Amino acid sequence: MATQLVRLPEVERLSASVVRILGGNPGKFTLQGTNTYLIGSGHQRILIDTGEGKPTWAAHLQSLLSEEKATVHQALITHWHGDHVNGIPDLLKICPRAQVFKHQPDAGQTEIQDGQVFRVEGATLTAFHTPGHTEDHMVFVLDEENALFTGDNVLGHGTAVFEDLHVYLSSLHRMRDRVSGRGYPGHGAVIDNATARVVEYIKHRQQREDEVLRVMQYGKLDVPENEPSPNPKRGWTPLQLVRVIYRDIPESLHLPASHGVLQVLLKLEAEGRVVHDSDSGDWTLAGQRPTL
């Protein structure tokens, strides 16, 4: 997957009020690294996220603040994962007076309220609680650019992982119509049209749900139009569904993919569309029992 990623500079000015600083932690799940953003145009700036504590990130931040003759006035944390919060101690060494805000804050942090507004010269940010990737996840709208900092709910490349599919979809719908401009994701390149990307994510999740139901009904993905619906012959585990749905991806990725399929099944179970047998671990379509 790494060969498909565009190279991103360690530090890059993205607009008059937004500079991206990479976290120095590229990887399979972090893509080019965790994106952190220095926002504003005056002496006092807002920082979104802090990386995972890599020395290169702290060095880049300190150098950038010196060049900009600026300081971090407030740091806004999108969510609790280590690659977004572990740089907080380094930030506070560089900017001891910085106030750290986070939804469901840890010790020494201040709560971010849904709808709370943060202002510095050149930037007005409004926070929105959008659980899904994590329960405490926040996104931020930059009024001056009609842009959205999407955190890890929507990425610049590929799809995101989530804790609860129903909650995640609700948050995606909440994010969809917030802005009409670009998106600044927690990982990956800038998104040209945030709304369009969020819509893609919603459609992708619906596609996966449709595929799960199709495989459980027919035992395969490719179903000719008007093919008679057979009686299910078996129950399915998430990993068995993955082997059909994700047949073209390496087997080493099947286990991570099964976590997403399990979330689909849990959503369908809550809707009364599938049933889970706790003894066997199998999942079947509601109202239909597999034959032995």
Automatic annotation (TrEMBL):
GO terms for molecular function: hydrolase activity; metal ion binding. Residues 33-187 form the Metallo-beta-lactamase domain. Keywords: Hydrolase, Metal-binding, Zinc. Gene3D superfamilies: Ribonuclease Z/Hydroxyacylglutathione hydrolase-like, Winged helix-like DNA-binding domain superfamily/Winged helix DNA-binding domain. Its cofactor is Zn(2+). GO terms for biological process: secondary metabolite biosynthetic process. Belongs to the metallo-beta-lactamase superfamily. Glyoxalase II family. This is Metallo-beta-lactamase domain-containing protein. It comes from Penicillium alfredii.
